[in-house]
Structures are given as structure tokens and as C-alpha cells.
Specification:
It is a single chain. Helix content is about 55%, strand content about 0%. It is mainly α and about 260 residues long. Strands 1-2 form a two-stranded antiparallel sheet. The N and C termini lie far apart (about 165 Å).
């Protein structure tokens, strides 16, 4: 028998043995084809690629870390904004309280200013103007004189008129203008408000010799008062510049009469 029990038919020699057996059975000659043993792997090769589960887990962890960092940064920014707003609010309150205390302390030394701010009666304000005349020119915490506050707090015409007499930007005795900017500013402010037209009319009537000075006095930038006057006050000032409050006499020509019919 060609089959030898000692032949190893396991593993890699199995195919070779089967081939020899077939040749021996089909061929009558004793020439049996031999084959060299072929090496076969005993197990399938494994793929070097990574596991999908590992990749998904790593991606999930990265996303989670990004979310955590974003939340922490947002919380930190919000915390800083809240803390900053809190300290700024307290700081501003302290500043406002200090200003308020300082303003009140200054007003205590300016009786006319204080009465105007407190909206006291006209009788009390007028009496204070007579008793503390020198104080009406002083500036309060916000840089306002007594007449500035009277305009701001809408005092009645009697108070405004009394103060305006003290703040006229002219010297009645010398018939000259004053350089005091507080006086010029007061006059300029008054003539820009239509509701004070009666006060303007009364002042110009009482000081008719100074009408031209009051009409053409200039502010800090060189603008004449009449050019800044409100429409109604412009008519009032213009009427006082006319001869007999009716006739406009030209200075550069011979006076003549002119009307709509002649």
C-alpha cells in the first residue's frame, strides 16, 4: 500500500497528501508526483484598522469637553459682567450722593438760589433779593446764577424782572456795556424766549436811552442781541429803536417820510 501511516496529514501537508494519493491511484506507474509543502496560515489575518466604537467614544468625549468649556467661559463672563455692574452702580450712587451733599451745602450759603430751587413764594424770593443782593451773582454747584435758576425753574415775571434789573449788561450811569459774561448771558437768554416779551418791553421802556446798547450788545462769539432775539422779542426791540416807536430813521440819509401810499 502506498499509504504510509507515518505520513503527517495535518496542517500544511494535507493538500500535498491528497494530491499524491490521487496520482498513485490513477497512474499505474509507480511514479508519484511529489509536491512541496505549501505554507498556509493557521488563522485569518486581522485588520490593522481601529475599532469604530473607540472612535465614536473619543469624538463624544471631545464634544463633551467643548460643551463644558463653553459653559464655564459663558458663566465666567456673566459673573464678571454682574460684578462689574454692581460695583459701577454703587460707585455712581456714591458719586451722586456726594454731588447732592455738595450741592445742598452750597445752596445753604446762597439764600436766593435756595428759595428759587425750593419753589418758594414770589414774596419770599423778592425779599431775599433785597436782603442778599450780593449773593445773586454767585454761582451754585452747576455754575448757575440766581437769574439762570429763575429762568430754569420758571419763576413768575415779577421775580424775573427784578433779577433782570440787576443783571442788565449795561452801566446806566456811564451808558456803557459791561464785560461781565453772567450779565450778557442772562440778557441773551431772556430775549430768546417769547413769553418774556412783556419783560423786555418794560425794561426797554424804562431804559429808553440804552435801547441801542441793549439791542446791539454782542455775546461771547460776537453775535448782536437783536440777531438772537425770538420773533416776538425782535419786534419789541425793533419798535423801541424806531423814532416815537413808529418811524424808522435812516442814519446815512436825509430823514424823509415814506408810507405805502407815498
Amino acid at each position: 500500500s502506498l499509504v504510509n501511516s507515518s505520513i503527517d496529514v495535518s496542517g500544511n501537508n494535507l493538500d500535498c497528501y491528497e494530491s499524491c494519493w490521487i496520482n498513485a491511484r490513477n497512474l499505474k506507474s509507480g511514479d508519484v508526483g511529489l509536491c512541496s509543502p505549501t505554507s498556509y496560515p493557521t488563522s485569518l489575518p486581522t485588520s490593522p484598522t481601529s475599532s469604530p466604537t473607540k472612535i465614536e467614544t473619543s469624538t463624544g468625549m471631545i464634544s463633551l469637553n467643548i460643551v463644558i468649556v463653553t459653559v464655564m467661559v459663558t458663566f465666567l463672563i456673566s459673573f464678571i459682567v454682574v460684578v462689574r455692574s454692581y460695583f459701577l452702580s454703587n460707585f455712581n450712587k456714591n458719586i451722586d450722593n456726594q454731588k447732592k451733599d455738595l450741592r445742598n451745602n452750597i445752596l445753604k450759603q446762597l439764600p436766593v438760589h435756595r428759595l428759587i430751587v425750593e419753589k418758594s413764594s414770589s414774596a419770599l424770593i423778592l425779599k431775599a433779593i433785597l436782603d442778599f443782593e450780593d449773593s445773586i451773582y454767585l454761582l451754585d454747584f452747576d455754575g448757575c446764577t440766581a437769574i439762570d435758576l429763575a429762568i430754569k425753574y420758571d419763576c413768575n415775571d415779577e421775580v424775573i424782572l427784578q433779577l433782570l434789573f440787576h443783571f442788565l449788561p449795561i452801566n446806566i450811569e456811564s451808558m456803557s456795556t459791561t464785560s461781565a459774561q453772567s450779565h450778557v448771558r442772562a440778557w441773551m437768554n431772556i430775549i430768546q424766549i417769547d413769553k418774556y416779551s412783556k419783560i423786555i418791553d418794560r425794561v426797554l421802556e424804562m431804559h429808553f436811552n440804552a435801547v441801542h446798547l441793549l439791542a446791539y450788545i454782542k455775546d461771547s462769539v460776537g453775535r448782536p442781541a437783536i440777531h438772537l432775539a425770538s420773533p416776538l422779542n425782535f419786534k419789541v426791540i425793533k419798535s423801541h429803536l424806531y423814532f416815537m416807536r413808529r418811524y424808522d430813521i435812516s442814519e446815512d440819509a436825509i430823514p424823509h417820510h415814506k408810507s405805502s401810499t407815498s
